[in-house]
Structures are given as structure tokens and as C-alpha cells.
Q: What sequence folds into this?
């Protein structure tokens, strides 16, 4: 493979970037990368463990997965280190980060980089400005965070209990009225709960493109007015009359499994099929994609400005972009999250890795997922969460 | 010889001041600075009241405050009442009581909470056992049990843990009171057994258990792990709000977080003050009631009710722990099956090795913190012996201080201080932070048996020419081996249970069974949470068992040294 690459990209291999990469590899050898990543999904945890075994074998870089219950913990951590004047030797090397957390770190200059273009495997990415892998919730990543997995919002429901699920945002109100107490969503302070509200908002707006601009006081109250009207109609028929909510999507999955509610939500279309295989959901659960598609985004990893094992972190970020790694990630048996690579940039050999992946009856095909809706600018999420808290906290 | 004792005392005091009190004070100071707008890292460098305004503008703050007061004060008051009542029933058999209660005392809060949440949930074990044949619930009923807006589940969870603790503290205190003589005298004067208990014995016990009760109060007001698992979420208690704000993506929220932490410290202080005032009022009213000399009222039903509640709490605790064990070997266990439908060793096979390595870390941290605390405690008590005087009130307060200040109030600031010293995230820093909380409990467990050691043994040794160090090593420590090991087991359990100190000071790098169990409790897989919760409870149990067995084996041919107190 290496000779082929050399033949195809002689200039690339000779470029200083590649020579630098060897220096990064040398510096990284023996480092332990403290990867701070949400630890609520056992499959992701297992994947990170596997990644650590591989980078240890390939490059002598081991990964210590610091399991967060909320990514904000890592942001607060880096900030506390900055407060204490610790500009080197920081405790976090790599963070799985998205949206408002990324924006906060970028604005406070808490991130190392730009580093993405220095990664050899970045050549498989579509790095043109405004592409999905260079934009996090409409915010340009400026090379400060590297993509690693694709996320798509979907609902799941139990076909044994729900014959006709709602396919539109407005339809949820009617369904809940007919089935009071059987629908809920994670608290909006949680990422998934906020996404539920954003998905609803997009479904209610005739033209959601306004959400791509930062929210202002005027646009916010005007644009979100239909959302609150919709929610006011929905809330009395939510589980516990909308007075209390599950903390996150994992607990909501447990509620679906227990039969407490009839819907769960995920940022991973393969998750319900995987949960069934693990005995965590009844076999009758299926994915529901509303008409018009759902929100999708790319998950990123970023390196704090004071990371002690910066080179090791870059090696891990690069490993995550390897076509073989991405194909394994897309395997339903492993993670089932879709690849972030640009298919046009893969060799036939690499593309074959993806074609060979197994499928499953509970797993939706990519064409069933409909169009991918753009994430609104982070300011919308922040404001929606705040406004929801003001309106519905008693 | 006197000089030697003074040097020892000075050293111990210096160690306690520098190692235990200074971090608390430093942390509080740092938190206070942030609460008044001084956090240069986020560009806040001017003294201001803005953090308090931000706090006041927080949605649901009033409800949070009410919840905190109701759960904190309520759980303490109820625990105290139940413990006091049950104590009357159990005081005659203190050792039996200790053995029965030890498993609940040893089980960490998070393990109990995870199990209890499953036991009492509408889709939980109790509902499963009765459905649908008795209840008709084909799907789980729309009841609010866990996460209820009044915090009742949280109060219940706290009681499962605190009643056994208070009960054991009371039983220890009773050793200092001639209970049997008082009971006989009271009965002879025509008072019922229960009335003697309420009118004569409890008023004498109270001063001896006041500080432990305040520690329970401060803990109840600031508990985070149990409140996350059992308490309401929208809004949660103040302590959970603080943790959420401290970890929010918007770093400006660190300011109101610090203000809220300071507020919580104020609430704990006010709670203790209110309690002290109530104590005066009760004492005044009580004296009047005593002087009237009424013998007609029977307190027996109340005492019996308390014993019954204790039994119920113990049953709930036992069910909770059993649920953890069952989940860890279940493959699928869906509503309304009373037992798992499919069993499997897969959870242990898949997660056992990783859990074992986390258990080793936990063991190491807890052992180190306990060792340090026990050595310091022995040094302190020996210092008191050599000074030949009892403990001053200020000294008692000093020991208890880390338990009386809510953890969140000083941990954030302490973390910043540790970071500055380059200590944060190291196992050593975590051991230190744990020792802050382990030491007071070791002192609680060890002080009473230490004082009750028959002074004639060291006196005899002294007459035979043994110096103070030899008396300590050859006479006192062997005689006190059982209580020392018990105190160590208590300290070990306290360390294993620490959640916030591990989270804040460990920088997330130090994972213990508790931090993992709490993280997993918000995941979808009860089987893994069950495995970690079970291990978390099993580790302190193993240590308790060793604490009982080691003296039995070591002193197998020394009957007088076996089974507790030297005769």
C-alpha cells in the first residue's frame, strides 16, 4: 500500500508535513493519552478501549479513557487548570467535544491547534470551508477539532405497543393526547433533551435557515414562539405531566425497556439494534425517522492548550481517521456510527472495507434516514435550554 | 516524660491543623473569592455581587432551597427519631446490633441508592413482584416514586444509611451511662420502660451524639451522589445544582456555582444554629414535662414503631443490595418478571477484569487514607492519655470540622489550590482528600473504646518499668486491637464511599468503584451498574470481616482479648 501511495502522492510523502509527522510519532511513543469522553455508552467505551490497544501496538501510545458523565466536566477542568496558572502538563489530552462546549473552549482559547491538517489521515476528509467535518454546529472548527464519528438523531419505539407512531412534530401532540404519560424526553440541560427541542423547532418552522445565524433577542422570541406553543400543548400529556424528566437518553432507553414510556431517542441510528442484541431492549423496537429527516452532526475530538501528551493525542486523532478504523466504527456489531470520511477520497480497497460490513433487520439503511438537517448555531441551543428552564422549572 | 507527651501532642495538633483544617479553610477561602467575582481565568477580576445576582436569577432556585432544607433536615430528624427509638429496643444487645447494622454502615451511599432506585421504582422490583397478578398493572403504573418532586425517595435513601450510623453512635454513647441502674430506678418509681428511656436516658445521650448528628445534617444538606440517583431533577437539590453549574459548558456559571456553594455552607451553619435553639426549647419544655412527673403516658408504641421502621429500612437496604447482585448476573430482566428471565455470566466476563483493576485502585486509596488516619488517631488519643486529661470542646470541634462544612463548599476551591501546587489528579491528592473525611470517623469509632481501656493494665506495666512507648506498643495496642481494626474498617468504608472528593481532586483521572458506579447509574445498563455497585459494597464488607476475624485468629489462645472489649 505504501508504494501505491508514494506513486500517487509523491509530493505528499516528501512534504515537510510528513517529516514533521515522524517527529510527532517519535515524541508520542510511550505517552499515555488521557481521553476525556462521555462514558455513558458501553459500546463507545469498548471501542475506546480497543483503540487504545491498537495505538499501543502501532505507535506505543496508550489511551486512558476518563469517563465523563457530562463533557462540561472536562471544560471546567481545563478552565480550573488555567485559573491555577497551569499552562503546561495539563491533565487532559483529548476531549470528545461538540457544540456549545466546543464554542466555549474555542472562545476562551483553551484549545491547542490548528492541528487537523497536520494529521496524515486528514487527506481522506473533505476539508473545504463549510463542509460537515469543518463545521461544528455552524461554528468553523478552524482545525482546532478533528472529526471522528457521524451522529444522526433518531427516535426508537416499541412496535409491540405503538401501532402508529407520529411522523411529524405536530403529530406528537396528537399522539400524546391519545396516549397520555407514554412520551418523555431527557432534561433539556442534557444534550439529547436539547436536541429533541431543536428537532421540534426545525419541524415547526417553514424556513429553518434562520437558525444558521446566531440568535438575537428579537429573532429568538419570534422564531421560537411556535415551539413554546407546541410544547405547552404537549407537556400536560408527557410522562409525569412533564414535571420530571430522565437525566439522559440512556435512562430513557431503560424506561422504554421497562415499558414506562413508548419512545426513546438516540444520536446513533444503529444504537437500538445494538441494544436489542445486548438484551437491553425488547426485540420489537424499531427506529423512527420523522418526515423531512433529522438533525445530524459530526462528533469531534480536540486537544486542550496545556495537554501534557499533545503528540500522543494527535496520534490518536489520526488513528480515528484511518479508513480501517472508520470501517470498524461503522460496523453494527461495534458502534454502527457512520463514517466521517469523504467516500470520493478512498481507494477501491478502502471502500471495500465499508461494503463488506454486516447489516441487521433492526438497523435502518442509510436511505431510510432521509435528509440530514443542519445543527442550528450553538446560541440557539443555549437560549432554548435557558428559556425552557425559565418556563418549565417550578 | 511530660515533655515527651507535650511534643507528641504538638506534633499531632500540627498535623491535624496543616493536613485537615488548612485545606478546608483554604478551599472555603477560594470558593468565597469566586463567589464575589474573583476568578481571573475567565476574566472575572473585580469584586462584585454579580455572582449572587446570577444565582438569584436561576430558575427554580426557591424550589431547590426548599428541597435542600426538607431533605437535609427531614432525613436527619427522622433518622434521629428512628435511631433513638430503636436504640431502646436494641441497647441490651449492642454487639448483635452492631453485627446486624454493619453491612448497611459499610455499604456506600451510591450502592444503596442504585439498588433502592430499582427496588421502589414504578417499574421496579416491588412492583414487578406484585404485578400484574395482584395490582393489575400490565405496564408500570404512572406513579412517582424515584425522583419525586418532594424528595421523599432521597430522604428514604439517606435514612437507610444514617439510621444505622446514628444507632451505633448512640449504642457507643450508652456505654458511658449506667443505663441498667437508671431503668431499674425509673421502673421502681412507677415509670414505664419507654418513659424512662425518653425522660431519663435520652437527655443524657444527646450531648454525646450532638456532633455526629450535625455531621449527618451537613451531609444530608450537601449530598450529591444519592441526590442525583434518587432526588428530583427539575430542579434538583442545591448541592446537585452547584455540581451542574460547576460542570456547565458556560464557564461564567462557575461564579453562581461558588455563590451557591457558599450559600449551602451558610444553610448548614444556620441549620446547626436552628437545631441548637430548638435544643434549648425542647430542654426547657422537657424539664417542665419531667417535673410534672406524669407516669400515665406510654412511650412503648412509639419505641415499637421505631423498631419496626428500622426493620423496614433494613429490609429495603437488604433488597437494594440483593438487587445489585441479581442484576450483575442477569441477561434480560424485563417488567413484570419478579426474577431475571435469562441469567448470564457475560457481564462479569466482559467487565469483571476492568472492574477488578478499579477495585484495586479503590483498595489502594482507601488503605492509604485509612492507615494515615488511624496512625494520626492513635497519636492523638495517646497524646490525651499522656496529658492525663479529657478532650477540650475546641479539639472535638476541630476533629469534626471537615464533616460539618458541606463538601461542595470547599472542594471546588481546594481543587484550585491543589492545582496550583501541581498535586491535582494524583492519587496522593485523592488519598489526602479522603483522609479529611476518614479521620473524623476513625476518631468517632476509636475514642470511646480507647477511653474505656482499664487503666490498671498500663499502670501495672509502668510499675514493672515500661516506658510510655513500650506501654503503648506492648500493652495498649494489643489490648485495643479489635477496636482499632473496627475503626480502620469504618474509615475504609468512608473512603470507598467518597464521591465528590474523588471527582474534584482526582481530576477525573482517578476512577474508583464509586465514581464508576455513579457514572454507570445514569447509563442504560443496570447489569454493569449492579456489578460495580455490588463490588463497591463488597469491598468494605470484606474489610469489616477481616477486622472481626484477625483478632479472633491472632488471639485464638487469649480468651480475654477476643471478641471486643478487654474484660
A:
Amino acid at each position: 500500500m505504501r508504494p501505491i501511495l508514494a506513486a500517487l502522492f509523491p509530493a505528499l510523502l516528501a512534504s515537510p508535513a510528513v517529516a514533521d509527522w515522524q517527529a510527532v510519532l517519535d515524541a508520542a511513543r510511550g505517552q499515555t493519552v488521557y481521553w476525556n469522553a462521555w462514558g455513558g455508552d458501553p459500546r463507545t467505551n469498548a471501542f475506546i478501549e480497543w483503540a487504545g490497544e491498537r495505538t499501543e501496538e502501532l505507535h506505543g501510545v496508550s489511551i486512558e479513557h476518563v469517563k465523563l458523565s457530562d463533557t462540561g466536566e472536562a471544560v471546567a477542568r481545563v478552565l480550573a487548570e488555567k485559573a491555577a496558572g497551569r499552562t503546561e502538563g495539563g491533565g487532559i489530552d483529548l476531549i470528545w467535544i461538540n457544540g456549545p462546549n466546543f464554542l466555549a473552549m474555542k472562545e476562551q482559547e483553551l484549545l491547542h491547534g490548528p492541528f487537523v491538517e497536520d494529521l496524515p489521515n486528514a487527506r481522506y476528509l473533505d476539508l473545504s470551508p463549510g463542509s460537515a467535518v469543518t463545521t461544528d454546529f455552524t461554528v468553523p472548527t478552524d482545525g482546532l477539532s478533528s472529526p471522528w464519528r457521524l451522529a444522526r438523531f433518531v427516535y426508537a419505539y416499541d412496535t409491540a405497543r405503538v401501532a402508529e407512531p407520529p411522523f411529524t412534530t405536530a403529530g406528537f401532540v396528537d399522539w400524546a393526547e391519545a396516549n397520555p404519560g407514554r412520551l418523555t424526553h431527557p432534561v433539556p440541560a442534557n444534550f439529547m433533551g436539547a436536541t429533541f427541542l431543536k428537532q421540534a423547532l426545525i419541524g415547526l418552522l417553514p424556513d429553518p435557515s434562520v437558525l444558521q445565524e446566531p440568535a438575537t433577542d428579537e429573532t429568538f422570541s419570534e422564531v421560537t414562539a411556535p415551539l413554546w406553543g407546541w410544547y405547552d400543548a404537549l407537556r400536560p400529556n408527557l410522562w409525569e405531566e412533564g414535571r420530571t424528566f430522565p437525566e439522559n437518553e440512556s435512562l430513557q432507553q431503560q424506561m422504554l425497556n421497562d415499558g414506562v414510556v413508548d419512545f426513546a431517542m438516540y444520536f446513533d441510528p444503529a444504537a437500538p439494534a445494538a441494544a436489542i442484541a445486548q438484551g437491553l431492549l425488547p426485540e420489537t423496537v424499531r427506529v423512527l425517522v420523522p418526515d423531512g429527516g433529522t438533525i445530524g452532526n459530526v462528533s469531534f475530538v480536540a486537544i486542550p492548550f496545556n495537554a501534557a501528551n499533545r503528540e500522543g493525542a494527535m496520534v490518536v486523532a489520526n488513528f480515528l481517521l484511518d479508513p480501517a478504523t472508520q470501517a470498524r466504527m461503522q460496523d453494527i456489531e461495534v458502534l454502527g456510527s457512520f463514517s466521517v470520511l469523504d467516500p470520493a477520497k478512498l481507494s477501491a480497497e478502502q471502500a471495500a472495507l465499508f461494503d463488506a460490513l454486516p447489516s441487521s433487520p433492526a438497523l435502518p439503511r442509510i436511505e431510510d434516514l432521509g435528509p440530514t438537517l443542519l445543527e442550528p448555531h450553538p446560541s440557539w441551543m443555549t437560549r432554548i435550554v435557558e428559556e425552557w428552564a425559565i418556563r418549565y422549572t417550578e | 516524660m511530660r515533655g515527651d507527651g507535650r511534643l507528641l501532642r504538638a506534633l499531632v495538633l500540627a498535623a491535624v491543623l496543616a493536613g485537615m483544617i488548612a485545606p478546608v479553610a483554604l478551599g472555603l477561602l477560594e470558593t468565597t473569592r469566586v463567589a464575589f467575582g474573583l476568578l481571573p481565568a475567565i476574566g472575572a477580576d473585580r469584586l462584585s455581587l454579580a455572582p449572587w445576582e446570577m444565582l438569584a436569577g436561576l430558575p427554580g432556585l426557591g424550589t431547590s432551597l426548599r428541597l435542600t432544607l426538607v431533605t437535609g433536615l427531614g432525613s436527619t430528624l427522622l433518622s434521629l427519631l428512628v435511631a433513638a427509638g430503636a436504640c431502646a429496643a436494641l441497647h441490651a444487645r449492642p454487639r448483635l446490633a452492631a453485627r446486624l447494622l454493619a453491612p448497611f454502615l459499610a455499604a456506600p451511599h451510591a450502592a444503596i441508592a442504585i439498588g433502592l432506585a430499582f427496588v421502589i421504582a414504578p417499574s421496579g422490583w416491588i412492583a414487578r413482584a406484585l404485578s400484574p397478578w395482584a395490582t393489575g398493572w400490565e405496564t408500570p403504573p404512572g406513579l412517582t416514586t424515584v425522583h419525586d418532586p418532594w424528595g421523599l425517595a432521597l430522604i428514604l435513601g439517606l435514612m437507610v444509611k444514617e439510621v444505622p450510623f446514628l444507632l451505633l453512635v448512640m449504642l457507643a454513647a450508652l456505654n458511658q451511662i449506667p443505663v441498667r441502674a437508671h431503668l431499674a430506678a425509673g421502673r421502681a418509681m412507677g415509670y414505664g420502660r419507654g418513659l424512662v428511656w425518653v425522660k431519663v436516658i435520652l437527655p443524657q445521650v444527646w450531648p454525646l451524639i450532638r456532633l455526629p448528628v450535625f455531621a449527618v445534617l451537613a451531609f444530608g444538606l450537601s449530598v450529591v451522589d444519592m441526590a442525583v440517583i434518587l432526588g428530583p431533577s427539575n430542579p434538583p437539590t442545591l448541592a446537585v445544582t452547584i455540581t451542574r453549574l460547576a460542570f456547565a459548558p458556560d464557564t461564567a456559571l462557575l461564579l453562581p456555582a461558588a455563590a451557591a456553594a457558599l450559600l449551602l455552607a451558610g444553610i448548614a451553619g444556620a441549620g446547626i444554629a436552628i437545631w441548637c435553639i430548638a435544643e434549648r426549647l425542647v430542654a426547657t419544655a422537657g424539664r417542665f414535662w419531667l417535673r410534672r412527673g406524669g407516669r400515665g403516658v406510654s412511650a412503648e408504641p412509639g419505641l415499637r414503631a421505631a423498631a419496626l421502621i428500622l426493620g423496614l429500612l433494613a429490609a429495603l437496604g437488604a433488597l437494594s443490595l440483593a438487587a445489585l447482585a441479581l442484576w450483575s448476573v442477569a441477561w434480560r430482566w424485563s417488567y413484570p418478571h419478579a426474577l431475571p428471565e435469562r441469567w448470564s455470566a457475560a457481564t462479569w466476563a466482559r467487565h469483571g477484569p476492568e472492574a477488578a483493576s478499579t477495585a484495586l485502585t479503590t483498595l489502594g486509596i482507601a488503605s492509604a487514607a485509612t492507615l494515615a488516619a488511624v496512625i494520626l488517631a492513635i497519636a492523638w488519643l495517646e497524646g490525651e492519655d499522656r496529658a492525663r486529661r479529657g478532650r477540650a470542646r475546641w479539639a472535638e470541634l476541630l476533629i469534626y470540622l471537615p464533616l460539618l462544612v458541606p463538601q461542595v463548599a470547599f472542594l471546588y476551591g481546594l481543587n484550585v489550590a491543589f492545582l496550583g501546587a501541581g498535586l491535582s489528579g494524583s492519587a496522593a491528592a485523592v488519598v489526602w482528600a479522603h483522609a479529611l473525611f476518614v479521620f473524623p470517623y476513625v476518631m468517632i469509632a476509636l475514642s470511646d473504646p480507647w477511653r474505656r481501656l482499664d487503666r490498671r493494665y498500663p499502670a501495672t506495666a509502668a510499675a514493672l518499668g515500661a516506658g510510655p512507648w513500650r506501654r503503648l506498643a506492648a500493652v495498649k495496642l494489643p489490648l485495643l486491637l479489635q477496636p482499632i481494626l473496627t475503626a480502620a474498617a469504618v474509615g475504609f468504608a468512608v473512603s470507598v464511599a467518597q464521591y465528590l472528593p474523588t471527582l474534584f481532586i482526582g481530576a477525573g483521572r482517578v476512577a474508583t468503584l464509586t465514581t464508576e458506579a455513579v457514572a454507570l447509574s445514569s447509563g442504560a445498563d443496570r447489569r454493569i451498574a449492579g456489578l460495580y455497585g455490588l463490588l463497591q459494597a463488597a469491598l468494605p464488607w470484606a474489610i469489616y470481616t477481616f477486622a472481626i476475624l484477625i483478632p479472633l485468629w491472632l488471639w485464638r489462645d487469649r480468651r480475654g482479648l477476643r471478641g471486643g472489649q478487654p474484660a
